[in-house]
UniProtKB/TrEMBL annotation:
A GO molecular-function descriptor: ATP binding
Name assigned to this protein: RNase adapter RapZ
Span of domain RapZ C-terminal: 170-285
UniProt cross-references to InterPro entries, sorted A to Z: P-loop_NTPase, RapZ-like, RapZ-like_N, RapZ_C
Keywords: ATP-binding, GTP-binding, Nucleotide-binding
Binding positions (GTP): D59, A60, R61, S62
GTP-binding in keyword set: yes
Gene this protein is translated from: rapZ
Annotated source species: Pelistega suis
Domain of life: Bacteria
Matches recorded under HAMAP family: RapZ_like
Length: 294
């Protein structure tokens, strides 16, 4: 059985408990709020005791200097530890709403109060936490949970946990620019310049996954040329991303509403790269969220 170590981290209120419970359901041995200084020791001890699936949650609540995390993770990887990091975040507006609904205090409230001498607002706590975790966020895989239902987040975590050592999960993801770019994207391509099926009354209710829309878009040279150009770019640079010790590469394709053009282009690119495994295609803006294994 292959060894797998998953570190779940990120912003409070972004879904870390959901992610950790999903990993527990996948037979991972899970530890929440582990002190930063014990991460290396705990993983080494767990692996030595033949625990093949380990999941650890560390965030700004954890005892110790969270700023040391990037260096600790790099050291573990240099020693051959197969560690994957999932960094969860959400928009400030979403976090404010979630805290309002749960009526819970932010875990950094007391810490920030001790530093400033005055009770901080919830928004100040959120921004402070984002600053603390910024160095770790910049080096790891990010999932923006702002628009994700818990079931969708669990599906993403399940997919990511299946990535083995030396593999890279290639994801093609469509999105709507009017709803903002997904922060989890490594590469972003704008296809709003392409002909838009939205203005055809028969095609408008359909999506880029429907054959009628696909047939309509495939008739345009500009559509095929843009797909070819994106494919050539990815084919050239994918090997370099794989050499960068990362486990994930998310290619985001955006159009205005995330319904027709971006969906079709993401689907076509997934077909072009079907030889690469593991591979996923996702559509953020659909009424029913899709996440397919290709």
């Amino acid at each position: 059985m292959k060894k797998s170590v998953v570190l779940v981290t990120g912003i409070s209120g972004s879904g870390k408990s959901v992610a950790l419970r999903q990993l527990e359901d996948l037979a991972y041995n899970c530890v929440d709020n582990l002190p930063v200084s014990l991460l290396h020791e705990y993983i080494a001890d767990a692996l030595n005791n033949n625990l093949h699936r380990i999941a650890v949650a560390i965030d700004a609540r954890s005892h110790g200097d969270i700023s040391n995390m990037p260096e600790i993770i790099s050291g573990l990887r240099a020693r051959g530890t197969p560690i994957q990091v999932i960094f969860l975040e959400a928009a400030t507006e979403t976090l404010l709403q979630r805290y309002s609904e749960s009526r819970r205090a932010h875990p950094l409230t007391q810490k920030l109060k001790q530093q400033t001498g005055t009770p901080p607002s919830l928004e100040e706590c959120i921004e402070y936490e984002k600053e603390l975790l910024a160095p770790l966020r910049q080096t790891e895989h990010v999932i923006d949970t702002s628009s994700l239902a818990p079931s969708q987040l669990r599906a993403w975590v399940r997919e990511l946990s299946e990535v083995g050592p030396g593999e890279i999960l290639l994801t093609f993801e469509s999105f709507a620019f009017k709803k903002g770019m997904p922060s989890s994207a490594d590469l972003v391509f704008d296809v709003r310049c392409l002909p838009n099926p939205h203005y055809d009354s028969e095609l408008r209710p359909q999506t880029g996954r429907d054959q009628a829309v696909a047939d309509w878009l495939s008739k345009f040279d500009s559509v095929n040329e843009l797909i070819n150009d994106i494919a050539v770019y990815i084919e050239k640079w994918l090997p370099f991303y794989m050499q960068d010790t990362r486990s994930y590469l998310t290619v985001a394709i955006g159009c205005t509403g995330g319904k027709h053009r971006s969906v079709y282009v993401a689907e076509e690119l997934a077909k072009r790269f079907s030889y690469h495994q593991p591979l996923r295609v996702r559509h953020r803006a659909q009424a029913q969220f899709y996440s397919d294994i290709v």
